[in-house]
Design a protein that fits this description.
With about 625 residues, this protein is of the alpha+beta class. The protein contains 13 helices and 18 strands. A hairpin with a 2-residue loop joins strand 8 and strand 9.
Length: about 625
Amino acid sequence: MPVARRLRTIGLLLPALAGLALLAGIIGFRVSEGMGLADLRETGRHRLDLYAESLEREIDKYAYFPATLGLERDVLDLVAGRAPLAWGLNRYLERLNERAGTLSIYVLNRQGRVLAASNWNRPDSFIGEDLSYRPYFIEAAAGRQGRFFGVGTTRGEAGYYLSSPLAEDGAIVGVAVVKVSLEQLEQSWSTVEAPVLVADENGVVILASVPSWKFTTLRPMDEPTRRHFDQTLQYNARPLAPLGLMPQDRIAADAELVRLSRPAEGQLEETVFPVSGGFLAQTAPLHGTGWAMTVLSPADQVTGMAWAQAALAAVGSAFLGILLLMWMQRRRHLRELERKVEERTRNLRAAQDELVHAGKLAVIGQLSAGLAHELNQPLAALRTLSGNTVKFLQRGNLDAAQGNLERIAHLVDAMGALTSQLKSFARKSSGAPRPVAVRRPIDNALFLLDQRLRRSGVAVQVDVPEDIAALCDPNRLEQVVVNLVANGLDALAGREGSQGGGRLTLTAATGSGDGRVRIQVADNGPGLPADVLPRLFEPFFTTKETAKEGSGGLGLGLAISAGIVRDFGGALTGANGADGGAVFTIDLPAATLPIDPTAVQAGDFICPTLPSPP
Protein backbone atom coordinates (compact mmCIF):
# COMPACT_ATOMS: atom_id res chain seq x y z
CA MET A 1 0.00 0.00 0.00
CA PRO A 2 1.41 3.46 -0.83
CA VAL A 3 2.50 5.54 2.16
CA ALA A 4 0.08 8.39 1.36
CA ARG A 5 -2.87 6.03 1.21
CA ARG A 6 -1.85 4.37 4.48
CA LEU A 7 -1.54 7.74 6.22
CA ARG A 8 -4.93 8.79 4.87
CA THR A 9 -6.51 5.58 6.22
CA ILE A 10 -4.93 6.13 9.63
CA GLY A 11 -6.16 9.74 9.66
CA LEU A 12 -9.72 8.59 9.01
CA LEU A 13 -9.53 6.04 11.82
CA LEU A 14 -8.16 8.43 14.45
CA PRO A 15 -11.59 10.01 15.27
CA ALA A 16 -13.01 6.52 15.65
CA LEU A 17 -10.20 5.65 18.05
CA ALA A 18 -10.87 8.84 20.03
CA GLY A 19 -14.58 8.01 20.24
CA LEU A 20 -13.78 4.47 21.32
CA ALA A 21 -11.45 5.75 24.05
CA LEU A 22 -14.12 8.21 25.27
CA LEU A 23 -16.80 5.51 25.35
CA ALA A 24 -14.48 3.11 27.18
CA GLY A 25 -13.66 5.85 29.70
CA ILE A 26 -17.35 6.52 30.39
CA ILE A 27 -18.12 2.82 30.76
CA GLY A 28 -15.05 2.35 32.95
CA PHE A 29 -16.11 5.26 35.17
CA ARG A 30 -19.66 3.95 35.56
CA VAL A 31 -18.58 0.38 36.26
CA SER A 32 -15.84 1.40 38.70
CA GLU A 33 -18.08 3.90 40.47
CA GLY A 34 -20.89 1.35 40.74
CA MET A 35 -18.59 -1.30 42.18
CA GLY A 36 -16.99 1.19 44.58
CA LEU A 37 -20.37 2.46 45.80
CA ALA A 38 -21.61 -1.11 46.25
CA ASP A 39 -18.63 -1.85 48.48
CA LEU A 40 -19.19 1.44 50.30
CA ARG A 41 -22.87 0.59 50.87
CA GLU A 42 -21.93 -2.77 52.35
CA THR A 43 -19.42 -1.10 54.67
CA GLY A 44 -22.00 1.55 55.59
CA ARG A 45 -24.57 -1.08 56.55
CA HIS A 46 -22.07 -2.68 58.91
CA ARG A 47 -21.31 0.72 60.42
CA LEU A 48 -25.00 1.44 60.93
CA ASP A 49 -25.44 -1.86 62.75
CA LEU A 50 -22.44 -1.20 64.99
CA TYR A 51 -23.44 2.41 65.84
CA ALA A 52 -27.07 1.46 66.48
CA GLU A 53 -26.00 -1.42 68.71
CA SER A 54 -23.71 0.85 70.73
CA LEU A 55 -26.48 3.45 71.21
CA GLU A 56 -29.08 0.86 72.19
CA ARG A 57 -26.63 -0.72 74.62
CA GLU A 58 -25.95 2.67 76.22
CA ILE A 59 -29.65 3.42 76.64
CA ASP A 60 -30.54 -0.09 77.81
CA LYS A 61 -28.28 0.37 80.81
CA TYR A 62 -30.81 2.87 82.24
CA ALA A 63 -34.04 1.66 80.58
CA TYR A 64 -35.45 0.03 83.73
CA PHE A 65 -33.83 2.39 86.21
CA PRO A 66 -36.83 4.74 86.76
CA ALA A 67 -39.20 1.85 87.33
CA THR A 68 -37.06 0.58 90.21
CA LEU A 69 -37.78 3.77 92.15
CA GLY A 70 -41.40 2.67 92.36
CA LEU A 71 -40.25 -0.16 94.59
CA GLU A 72 -39.01 2.26 97.23
CA ARG A 73 -41.60 2.90 99.99
CA ASP A 74 -40.15 6.33 100.78
CA VAL A 75 -40.73 7.41 97.19
CA LEU A 76 -44.35 6.27 97.19
CA ASP A 77 -45.02 7.87 100.55
CA LEU A 78 -43.59 11.17 99.33
CA VAL A 79 -45.59 11.39 96.10
CA ALA A 80 -48.74 10.19 97.90
CA GLY A 81 -48.39 12.99 100.47
CA ARG A 82 -47.78 10.74 103.45
CA ALA A 83 -44.22 11.99 104.03
CA PRO A 84 -44.03 15.78 104.08
CA LEU A 85 -40.22 15.95 104.35
CA ALA A 86 -38.02 14.72 101.46
CA TRP A 87 -34.57 15.47 102.80
CA GLY A 88 -33.81 11.77 103.43
CA LEU A 89 -35.01 10.81 99.93
CA ASN A 90 -32.96 13.65 98.42
CA ARG A 91 -29.79 12.24 99.94
CA TYR A 92 -30.70 8.76 98.70
CA LEU A 93 -31.23 10.06 95.14
CA GLU A 94 -27.96 11.99 95.34
CA ARG A 95 -25.99 8.89 96.28
CA LEU A 96 -27.82 6.81 93.64
CA ASN A 97 -27.05 9.40 90.93
CA GLU A 98 -23.35 9.33 91.79
CA ARG A 99 -23.17 5.54 91.69
CA ALA A 100 -25.13 5.26 88.41
CA GLY A 101 -23.22 8.04 86.62
CA THR A 102 -26.41 9.76 85.46
CA LEU A 103 -26.95 13.51 85.16
CA SER A 104 -29.87 13.67 87.57
CA ILE A 105 -32.66 11.66 89.17
CA TYR A 106 -35.87 13.24 90.42
CA VAL A 107 -39.43 12.43 91.43
CA LEU A 108 -42.57 14.38 90.46
CA ASN A 109 -46.05 14.23 91.97
CA ARG A 110 -49.20 13.68 89.96
CA GLN A 111 -49.39 17.38 89.09
CA GLY A 112 -45.87 17.46 87.57
CA ARG A 113 -44.08 19.31 90.41
CA VAL A 114 -40.62 18.07 91.48
CA LEU A 115 -40.72 16.80 95.06
CA ALA A 116 -37.22 15.27 95.40
CA ALA A 117 -34.07 15.46 93.27
CA SER A 118 -30.46 14.32 93.31
CA ASN A 119 -29.32 17.93 92.86
CA TRP A 120 -31.32 19.15 95.88
CA ASN A 121 -28.35 21.04 97.43
CA ARG A 122 -27.29 22.88 94.24
CA PRO A 123 -28.37 26.37 93.21
CA ASP A 124 -29.94 25.00 90.04
CA SER A 125 -31.95 22.33 91.89
CA PHE A 126 -35.10 21.02 90.20
CA ILE A 127 -37.06 20.90 93.48
CA GLY A 128 -40.26 22.87 93.24
CA GLU A 129 -40.20 23.24 89.45
CA ASP A 130 -43.33 22.54 87.43
CA LEU A 131 -42.38 20.17 84.59
CA SER A 132 -45.87 19.08 83.68
CA TYR A 133 -45.38 20.41 80.13
CA ARG A 134 -42.47 18.06 79.43
CA PRO A 135 -43.37 15.24 77.00
CA TYR A 136 -41.69 12.61 79.17
CA PHE A 137 -43.96 13.58 82.14
CA ILE A 138 -47.05 13.51 79.98
CA GLU A 139 -46.20 10.01 78.70
CA ALA A 140 -45.47 8.63 82.19
CA ALA A 141 -48.58 10.26 83.72
CA ALA A 142 -50.59 8.43 81.07
CA GLY A 143 -49.09 5.10 82.25
CA ARG A 144 -46.47 4.69 79.54
CA GLN A 145 -42.70 4.67 79.56
CA GLY A 146 -41.43 8.08 78.50
CA ARG A 147 -38.45 8.64 76.21
CA PHE A 148 -37.33 12.15 75.37
CA PHE A 149 -34.21 13.97 74.29
CA GLY A 150 -34.02 17.62 75.16
CA VAL A 151 -32.05 20.47 76.64
CA GLY A 152 -32.55 21.22 80.29
CA THR A 153 -34.24 24.54 81.01
CA THR A 154 -32.31 25.08 84.25
CA ARG A 155 -28.72 24.32 83.30
CA GLY A 156 -29.08 24.13 79.51
CA GLU A 157 -27.57 20.64 79.60
CA ALA A 158 -28.67 18.25 76.85
CA GLY A 159 -29.61 14.75 77.90
CA TYR A 160 -31.82 11.75 77.38
CA TYR A 161 -34.81 11.52 79.71
CA LEU A 162 -36.31 8.20 80.75
CA SER A 163 -39.50 8.36 82.78
CA SER A 164 -41.72 5.74 84.43
CA PRO A 165 -45.07 6.02 86.21
CA LEU A 166 -45.17 5.46 90.02
CA ALA A 167 -48.26 3.43 90.84
CA GLU A 168 -49.86 2.42 94.11
CA ASP A 169 -52.89 0.15 94.30
CA GLY A 170 -53.28 0.45 90.52
CA ALA A 171 -53.38 4.24 90.58
CA ILE A 172 -50.61 6.50 89.23
CA VAL A 173 -49.46 8.73 92.06
CA GLY A 174 -46.30 10.21 90.54
CA VAL A 175 -43.49 9.99 87.98
CA ALA A 176 -39.81 8.99 88.35
CA VAL A 177 -37.32 10.50 85.89
CA VAL A 178 -33.69 9.70 85.10
CA LYS A 179 -31.64 11.99 82.87
CA VAL A 180 -28.55 10.44 81.27
CA SER A 181 -25.77 11.90 79.19
CA LEU A 182 -24.74 10.42 75.81
CA GLU A 183 -21.64 12.57 75.37
CA GLN A 184 -19.28 9.68 76.10
CA LEU A 185 -20.87 7.72 73.27
CA GLU A 186 -20.53 10.73 70.96
CA GLN A 187 -16.87 11.03 71.86
CA SER A 188 -16.30 7.38 70.90
CA TRP A 189 -17.98 8.06 67.56
CA SER A 190 -15.68 11.00 66.85
CA THR A 191 -12.76 8.62 66.19
CA VAL A 192 -14.49 6.54 63.52
CA GLU A 193 -13.71 6.76 59.80
CA ALA A 194 -17.17 7.90 58.72
CA PRO A 195 -19.26 10.57 60.49
CA VAL A 196 -22.52 9.51 62.07
CA LEU A 197 -25.52 11.45 63.36
CA VAL A 198 -28.84 10.73 65.03
CA ALA A 199 -31.90 12.85 64.27
CA ASP A 200 -35.05 12.80 66.37
CA GLU A 201 -38.62 12.69 65.12
CA ASN A 202 -38.45 16.42 64.34
CA GLY A 203 -35.42 16.05 62.05
CA VAL A 204 -33.14 17.75 64.61
CA VAL A 205 -29.66 16.29 65.02
CA ILE A 206 -29.44 15.35 68.71
CA LEU A 207 -26.29 13.16 68.54
CA ALA A 208 -23.36 13.56 66.17
CA SER A 209 -19.73 12.51 65.86
CA VAL A 210 -19.00 16.05 64.69
CA PRO A 211 -19.89 18.43 67.59
CA SER A 212 -20.86 21.34 65.32
CA TRP A 213 -23.53 19.22 63.65
CA LYS A 214 -25.42 18.86 66.92
CA PHE A 215 -28.72 20.78 67.13
CA THR A 216 -28.84 21.40 63.40
CA THR A 217 -31.71 20.29 61.18
CA LEU A 218 -31.76 17.88 58.29
CA ARG A 219 -34.69 19.63 56.61
CA PRO A 220 -35.97 23.20 56.55
CA MET A 221 -38.06 24.18 59.59
CA ASP A 222 -41.28 26.17 59.14
CA GLU A 223 -42.33 28.93 61.49
CA PRO A 224 -45.14 27.06 63.31
CA THR A 225 -42.71 24.28 64.22
CA ARG A 226 -40.17 26.78 65.48
CA ARG A 227 -42.81 28.52 67.67
CA HIS A 228 -43.83 25.13 69.06
CA PHE A 229 -40.20 24.40 70.08
CA ASP A 230 -40.00 27.82 71.71
CA GLN A 231 -43.08 27.02 73.78
CA THR A 232 -42.02 23.49 74.82
CA LEU A 233 -38.39 24.53 75.37
CA GLN A 234 -37.38 21.10 74.06
CA TYR A 235 -34.15 22.51 72.68
CA ASN A 236 -34.02 25.47 75.11
CA ALA A 237 -34.27 28.10 72.37
CA ARG A 238 -31.32 26.77 70.36
CA PRO A 239 -31.06 28.37 66.85
CA LEU A 240 -31.39 24.97 65.04
CA ALA A 241 -29.59 26.01 61.82
CA PRO A 242 -29.74 23.74 58.74
CA LEU A 243 -26.92 21.18 58.48
CA GLY A 244 -26.58 21.74 54.74
CA LEU A 245 -26.93 18.20 53.33
CA MET A 246 -27.74 18.53 49.64
CA PRO A 247 -29.02 15.36 47.88
CA GLN A 248 -27.21 14.53 44.63
CA ASP A 249 -28.27 11.08 43.41
CA ARG A 250 -30.31 8.30 45.02
CA ILE A 251 -28.76 4.90 44.33
CA ALA A 252 -30.98 2.76 46.61
CA ALA A 253 -34.00 3.03 48.89
CA ASP A 254 -31.79 3.57 51.95
CA ALA A 255 -28.77 5.20 50.30
CA GLU A 256 -28.12 8.36 48.31
CA LEU A 257 -25.18 10.49 47.33
CA VAL A 258 -25.17 13.84 49.17
CA ARG A 259 -22.89 16.82 49.39
CA LEU A 260 -22.31 18.68 52.64
CA SER A 261 -21.78 22.43 52.40
CA ARG A 262 -20.52 24.53 55.27
CA PRO A 263 -23.33 26.54 56.86
CA ALA A 264 -23.26 30.28 56.44
CA GLU A 265 -23.43 30.81 60.19
CA GLY A 266 -19.87 29.58 60.76
CA GLN A 267 -17.13 27.11 59.90
CA LEU A 268 -17.16 23.47 60.90
CA GLU A 269 -14.25 22.29 63.00
CA GLU A 270 -11.61 19.95 61.60
CA THR A 271 -12.03 16.21 62.26
CA VAL A 272 -10.25 13.00 61.37
CA PHE A 273 -12.41 12.78 58.24
CA PRO A 274 -13.54 15.39 55.73
CA VAL A 275 -16.67 17.21 56.85
CA SER A 276 -17.41 18.67 53.45
CA GLY A 277 -17.57 17.09 50.03
CA GLY A 278 -19.36 14.01 48.70
CA PHE A 279 -20.81 11.34 50.97
CA LEU A 280 -22.85 8.19 50.65
CA ALA A 281 -25.68 8.75 53.18
CA GLN A 282 -27.34 5.62 54.61
CA THR A 283 -30.21 5.94 57.09
CA ALA A 284 -31.90 3.39 59.31
CA PRO A 285 -34.58 3.85 62.03
CA LEU A 286 -33.66 3.10 65.65
CA HIS A 287 -35.81 0.45 67.28
CA GLY A 288 -38.14 1.65 70.05
CA THR A 289 -37.70 5.36 69.22
CA GLY A 290 -38.74 7.85 66.60
CA TRP A 291 -35.11 8.52 65.84
CA ALA A 292 -33.15 7.77 62.67
CA MET A 293 -29.42 7.14 62.43
CA THR A 294 -27.45 8.28 59.39
CA VAL A 295 -23.92 7.24 58.42
CA LEU A 296 -22.06 9.45 55.95
CA SER A 297 -19.36 7.44 54.18
CA PRO A 298 -16.90 9.66 52.27
CA ALA A 299 -17.41 8.98 48.55
CA ASP A 300 -14.77 11.29 47.08
CA GLN A 301 -12.20 8.49 47.16
CA VAL A 302 -14.56 6.23 45.24
CA THR A 303 -15.11 8.97 42.66
CA GLY A 304 -11.37 9.56 42.41
CA MET A 305 -10.75 5.86 41.87
CA ALA A 306 -13.53 5.78 39.27
CA TRP A 307 -11.89 8.65 37.38
CA ALA A 308 -8.54 6.85 37.55
CA GLN A 309 -10.16 3.66 36.23
CA ALA A 310 -11.88 5.69 33.51
CA ALA A 311 -8.53 7.16 32.46
CA LEU A 312 -6.95 3.71 32.42
CA ALA A 313 -9.87 2.33 30.40
CA ALA A 314 -9.62 5.19 27.91
CA VAL A 315 -5.86 4.83 27.56
CA GLY A 316 -6.12 1.05 27.41
CA SER A 317 -8.84 1.14 24.76
CA ALA A 318 -6.86 3.67 22.75
CA PHE A 319 -3.82 1.44 23.02
CA LEU A 320 -5.87 -1.60 21.99
CA GLY A 321 -7.35 0.42 19.16
CA ILE A 322 -3.88 1.34 17.95
CA LEU A 323 -2.84 -2.31 18.23
CA LEU A 324 -5.97 -3.30 16.32
CA LEU A 325 -5.20 -0.73 13.65
CA MET A 326 -1.64 -2.00 13.39
CA TRP A 327 -2.93 -5.57 13.27
CA MET A 328 -5.38 -4.69 10.50
CA GLN A 329 -2.61 -2.99 8.55
CA ARG A 330 -0.40 -6.00 9.12
CA ARG A 331 -3.18 -8.36 8.09
CA ARG A 332 -3.67 -6.37 4.92
CA HIS A 333 0.05 -6.47 4.27
CA LEU A 334 0.14 -10.20 5.03
CA ARG A 335 -2.76 -10.81 2.65
CA GLU A 336 -0.77 -9.07 -0.04
CA LEU A 337 2.23 -11.19 0.83
CA GLU A 338 0.10 -14.34 0.92
CA ARG A 339 -1.29 -13.54 -2.50
CA LYS A 340 2.21 -13.05 -3.84
CA VAL A 341 3.45 -16.19 -2.07
CA GLU A 342 0.55 -18.21 -3.50
CA GLU A 343 1.33 -16.90 -6.94
CA ARG A 344 5.02 -17.68 -6.51
CA THR A 345 4.12 -21.11 -5.09
CA ARG A 346 1.99 -21.90 -8.11
CA ASN A 347 4.85 -20.87 -10.36
CA LEU A 348 7.36 -22.88 -8.33
CA ARG A 349 5.06 -25.90 -8.27
CA ALA A 350 4.67 -25.70 -12.02
CA ALA A 351 8.44 -25.40 -12.36
CA GLN A 352 8.91 -28.33 -9.98
CA ASP A 353 6.47 -30.43 -12.01
CA GLU A 354 8.40 -29.55 -15.15
CA LEU A 355 11.64 -30.42 -13.38
CA VAL A 356 10.25 -33.76 -12.22
CA HIS A 357 9.03 -34.51 -15.70
CA ALA A 358 12.38 -33.48 -17.16
CA GLY A 359 14.07 -35.76 -14.67
CA LYS A 360 11.92 -38.64 -15.81
CA LEU A 361 12.80 -37.93 -19.41
CA ALA A 362 16.46 -37.83 -18.41
CA VAL A 363 16.06 -41.25 -16.81
CA ILE A 364 14.53 -42.56 -20.00
CA GLY A 365 17.47 -41.13 -21.93
CA GLN A 366 19.94 -42.76 -19.59
CA LEU A 367 18.04 -46.06 -19.84
CA SER A 368 17.84 -45.93 -23.63
CA ALA A 369 21.01 -47.98 -24.18
CA GLY A 370 19.78 -50.82 -22.01
CA LEU A 371 16.28 -50.63 -23.46
CA ALA A 372 17.66 -50.66 -27.00
CA HIS A 373 19.51 -53.85 -26.15
CA GLU A 374 16.33 -55.23 -24.57
CA LEU A 375 14.40 -54.49 -27.78
CA ASN A 376 17.13 -55.62 -30.24
CA GLN A 377 16.89 -59.24 -29.15
CA PRO A 378 13.11 -59.54 -29.82
CA LEU A 379 13.52 -57.63 -33.11
CA ALA A 380 16.23 -60.03 -34.30
CA ALA A 381 14.04 -62.93 -33.32
CA LEU A 382 11.10 -61.34 -35.15
CA ARG A 383 13.17 -61.02 -38.37
CA THR A 384 14.33 -64.64 -38.16
CA LEU A 385 10.88 -65.97 -37.39
CA SER A 386 9.21 -63.91 -40.15
CA GLY A 387 11.75 -65.18 -42.74
CA ASN A 388 11.24 -68.76 -41.61
CA THR A 389 7.49 -68.29 -41.76
CA VAL A 390 7.70 -67.24 -45.44
CA LYS A 391 9.70 -70.34 -46.24
CA PHE A 392 7.27 -72.56 -44.31
CA LEU A 393 4.38 -71.06 -46.28
CA GLN A 394 6.18 -71.63 -49.57
CA ARG A 395 6.69 -75.26 -48.62
CA GLY A 396 3.11 -75.57 -47.52
CA ASN A 397 4.12 -76.34 -43.95
CA LEU A 398 1.23 -74.48 -42.38
CA ASP A 399 1.66 -75.89 -38.86
CA ALA A 400 5.27 -74.66 -38.61
CA ALA A 401 4.24 -71.27 -40.04
CA GLN A 402 1.42 -71.02 -37.47
CA GLY A 403 3.82 -71.75 -34.59
CA ASN A 404 6.23 -69.02 -35.78
CA LEU A 405 3.38 -66.52 -36.06
CA GLU A 406 2.25 -67.29 -32.47
CA ARG A 407 5.82 -66.73 -31.19
CA ILE A 408 5.94 -63.43 -33.17
CA ALA A 409 2.66 -62.29 -31.52
CA HIS A 410 4.04 -63.12 -28.06
CA LEU A 411 7.21 -61.13 -28.70
CA VAL A 412 5.18 -58.16 -29.97
CA ASP A 413 3.03 -58.20 -26.78
CA ALA A 414 6.15 -58.22 -24.61
CA MET A 415 7.69 -55.31 -26.54
CA GLY A 416 4.40 -53.43 -26.29
CA ALA A 417 4.36 -53.92 -22.51
CA LEU A 418 7.90 -52.52 -22.27
CA THR A 419 7.07 -49.42 -24.31
CA SER A 420 3.82 -48.96 -22.36
CA GLN A 421 5.81 -48.92 -19.08
CA LEU A 422 8.14 -46.29 -20.53
CA LYS A 423 5.12 -44.24 -21.62
CA SER A 424 3.56 -44.54 -18.13
CA PHE A 425 6.81 -43.49 -16.48
CA ALA A 426 7.27 -40.52 -18.83
CA ARG A 427 3.76 -39.09 -18.58
CA LYS A 428 2.84 -36.16 -16.30
CA SER A 429 0.79 -37.23 -13.28
CA SER A 430 -1.62 -35.16 -11.16
CA GLY A 431 0.36 -35.92 -8.01
CA ALA A 432 -2.90 -36.31 -6.00
CA PRO A 433 -2.44 -38.95 -3.29
CA ARG A 434 -4.67 -42.03 -3.23
CA PRO A 435 -4.49 -45.52 -1.75
CA VAL A 436 -1.73 -47.40 -3.55
CA ALA A 437 -0.32 -50.89 -2.98
CA VAL A 438 3.36 -49.92 -2.62
CA ARG A 439 4.61 -53.23 -4.09
CA ARG A 440 3.57 -52.12 -7.60
CA PRO A 441 5.64 -48.88 -7.83
CA ILE A 442 8.62 -50.80 -6.38
CA ASP A 443 8.31 -53.61 -8.97
CA ASN A 444 7.94 -51.07 -11.78
CA ALA A 445 11.03 -49.18 -10.62
CA LEU A 446 13.08 -52.40 -10.58
CA PHE A 447 11.75 -53.27 -14.03
CA LEU A 448 12.98 -49.94 -15.41
CA LEU A 449 16.44 -50.54 -13.93
CA ASP A 450 16.51 -54.20 -14.92
CA GLN A 451 19.26 -53.85 -17.53
CA ARG A 452 21.50 -51.85 -15.18
CA LEU A 453 20.89 -54.31 -12.34
CA ARG A 454 21.91 -57.19 -14.61
CA ARG A 455 25.09 -55.45 -15.72
CA SER A 456 26.06 -54.46 -12.16
CA GLY A 457 25.67 -57.93 -10.74
CA VAL A 458 24.05 -56.45 -7.60
CA ALA A 459 21.76 -58.84 -5.77
CA VAL A 460 18.31 -57.38 -5.10
CA GLN A 461 16.16 -58.55 -2.19
CA VAL A 462 12.54 -57.38 -2.01
CA ASP A 463 10.46 -57.88 1.15
CA VAL A 464 7.27 -55.91 0.47
CA PRO A 465 3.91 -57.55 1.29
CA GLU A 466 1.17 -57.15 -1.30
CA ASP A 467 -1.37 -55.80 1.23
CA ILE A 468 0.61 -52.76 2.42
CA ALA A 469 -0.98 -49.58 1.03
CA ALA A 470 -0.03 -45.91 1.38
CA LEU A 471 -1.58 -42.57 0.38
CA CYS A 472 0.53 -41.31 -2.51
CA ASP A 473 0.76 -40.99 -6.29
CA PRO A 474 2.09 -44.30 -7.67
CA ASN A 475 3.90 -42.69 -10.60
CA ARG A 476 5.80 -40.23 -8.40
CA LEU A 477 6.55 -42.84 -5.75
CA GLU A 478 7.99 -44.96 -8.55
CA GLN A 479 10.27 -42.05 -9.52
CA VAL A 480 11.53 -41.71 -5.92
CA VAL A 481 12.27 -45.45 -5.70
CA VAL A 482 14.09 -45.36 -9.07
CA ASN A 483 16.22 -42.47 -7.75
CA LEU A 484 17.06 -44.27 -4.49
CA VAL A 485 17.85 -47.61 -6.23
CA ALA A 486 20.02 -45.82 -8.82
CA ASN A 487 21.90 -44.00 -6.03
CA GLY A 488 22.41 -47.36 -4.32
CA LEU A 489 23.83 -48.82 -7.53
CA ASP A 490 26.20 -45.84 -7.76
CA ALA A 491 27.35 -46.49 -4.19
CA LEU A 492 27.91 -50.20 -4.96
CA ALA A 493 29.91 -49.61 -8.15
CA GLY A 494 33.16 -51.56 -8.06
CA ARG A 495 31.99 -54.18 -5.52
CA GLU A 496 31.25 -56.85 -8.15
CA GLY A 497 34.39 -58.81 -7.30
CA SER A 498 34.43 -58.08 -3.59
CA GLN A 499 33.56 -60.68 -1.03
CA GLY A 500 29.81 -61.02 -0.77
CA GLY A 501 29.22 -58.66 -3.71
CA GLY A 502 26.84 -55.71 -3.83
CA ARG A 503 23.39 -56.07 -2.28
CA LEU A 504 20.25 -53.92 -2.37
CA THR A 505 17.37 -54.55 0.06
CA LEU A 506 13.91 -53.05 -0.37
CA THR A 507 11.44 -53.49 2.51
CA ALA A 508 8.07 -52.04 3.49
CA ALA A 509 6.18 -52.29 6.78
CA THR A 510 3.30 -50.62 8.62
CA GLY A 511 4.09 -48.93 11.95
CA SER A 512 2.47 -50.38 15.05
CA GLY A 513 -0.56 -48.16 15.69
CA ASP A 514 0.86 -44.92 14.23
CA GLY A 515 -0.91 -45.09 10.86
CA ARG A 516 2.32 -44.82 8.83
CA VAL A 517 4.00 -46.91 6.14
CA ARG A 518 7.81 -47.00 5.99
CA ILE A 519 9.64 -48.07 2.82
CA GLN A 520 13.39 -48.62 3.17
CA VAL A 521 16.05 -48.87 0.45
CA ALA A 522 19.32 -50.13 1.93
CA ASP A 523 22.70 -51.06 0.40
CA ASN A 524 25.88 -52.58 1.75
CA GLY A 525 28.10 -49.88 0.29
CA PRO A 526 30.51 -47.54 2.09
CA GLY A 527 27.70 -45.57 3.74
CA LEU A 528 27.22 -41.80 4.08
CA PRO A 529 30.12 -39.65 5.39
CA ALA A 530 29.40 -37.66 8.55
CA ASP A 531 29.91 -34.31 6.78
CA VAL A 532 27.42 -35.29 4.07
CA LEU A 533 24.49 -36.23 6.31
CA PRO A 534 23.47 -32.64 7.28
CA ARG A 535 23.44 -31.54 3.61
CA LEU A 536 22.00 -34.71 2.13
CA PHE A 537 18.79 -33.09 0.84
CA GLU A 538 20.15 -29.66 -0.09
CA PRO A 539 19.50 -28.63 -3.70
CA PHE A 540 22.53 -28.81 -6.03
CA PHE A 541 24.57 -30.70 -3.44
CA THR A 542 26.23 -33.86 -4.76
CA THR A 543 29.18 -36.11 -3.90
CA LYS A 544 29.58 -37.36 -7.51
CA GLU A 545 32.54 -35.68 -9.14
CA THR A 546 31.86 -36.92 -12.68
CA ALA A 547 29.13 -38.97 -14.24
CA LYS A 548 30.15 -42.54 -14.93
CA GLU A 549 29.08 -44.23 -18.09
CA GLY A 550 26.04 -46.27 -17.45
CA SER A 551 25.76 -45.12 -13.88
CA GLY A 552 22.12 -44.40 -14.28
CA GLY A 553 22.16 -41.04 -12.46
CA LEU A 554 18.56 -39.71 -12.31
CA GLY A 555 19.00 -35.98 -12.46
CA LEU A 556 16.08 -35.65 -10.00
CA GLY A 557 18.29 -35.46 -6.95
CA LEU A 558 17.44 -36.24 -3.36
CA ALA A 559 16.09 -32.69 -2.82
CA ILE A 560 13.36 -33.22 -5.45
CA SER A 561 12.63 -36.71 -4.15
CA ALA A 562 12.23 -35.31 -0.63
CA GLY A 563 9.86 -32.66 -1.98
CA ILE A 564 7.75 -35.31 -3.74
CA VAL A 565 7.43 -37.35 -0.54
CA ARG A 566 6.67 -34.20 1.49
CA ASP A 567 3.77 -33.39 -0.87
CA PHE A 568 2.19 -36.70 0.20
CA GLY A 569 2.39 -35.71 3.87
CA GLY A 570 5.46 -37.88 4.40
CA ALA A 571 9.19 -37.53 4.89
CA LEU A 572 12.38 -38.86 3.27
CA THR A 573 15.35 -39.44 5.57
CA GLY A 574 18.81 -40.90 5.15
CA ALA A 575 21.15 -42.58 7.62
CA ASN A 576 23.83 -45.23 7.95
CA GLY A 577 22.74 -48.80 8.68
CA ALA A 578 23.77 -50.70 11.78
CA ASP A 579 25.78 -53.15 9.61
CA GLY A 580 27.19 -50.48 7.32
CA GLY A 581 25.91 -49.01 4.10
CA ALA A 582 23.27 -46.34 3.57
CA VAL A 583 19.57 -46.64 4.48
CA PHE A 584 16.95 -44.31 3.00
CA THR A 585 13.48 -44.35 4.57
CA ILE A 586 10.28 -43.15 2.90
CA ASP A 587 7.66 -42.40 5.59
CA LEU A 588 4.11 -42.13 4.18
CA PRO A 589 0.57 -42.05 5.62
CA ALA A 590 -1.04 -45.47 5.58
CA ALA A 591 -4.11 -45.93 3.40
CA THR A 592 -7.31 -45.79 5.45
CA LEU A 593 -9.61 -47.29 2.80
CA PRO A 594 -9.58 -51.04 2.23
CA ILE A 595 -8.25 -51.89 -1.19
CA ASP A 596 -7.86 -55.06 -3.25
CA PRO A 597 -4.11 -55.52 -3.68
CA THR A 598 -4.72 -57.62 -6.80
CA ALA A 599 -6.75 -54.91 -8.57
CA VAL A 600 -5.03 -52.84 -11.26
CA GLN A 601 -5.84 -49.15 -10.64
CA ALA A 602 -5.83 -46.35 -13.15
CA GLY A 603 -2.27 -45.28 -13.82
CA ASP A 604 -0.79 -48.46 -12.30
CA PHE A 605 1.33 -50.79 -14.43
CA ILE A 606 2.39 -54.28 -13.50
CA CYS A 607 5.72 -55.04 -15.11
CA PRO A 608 5.77 -58.07 -17.44
CA THR A 609 8.32 -60.80 -17.63
CA LEU A 610 9.94 -60.72 -21.06
CA PRO A 611 10.54 -64.13 -22.67
CA SER A 612 14.00 -65.10 -23.71
CA PRO A 613 14.46 -64.83 -27.50
CA PRO A 614 14.73 -68.11 -29.40
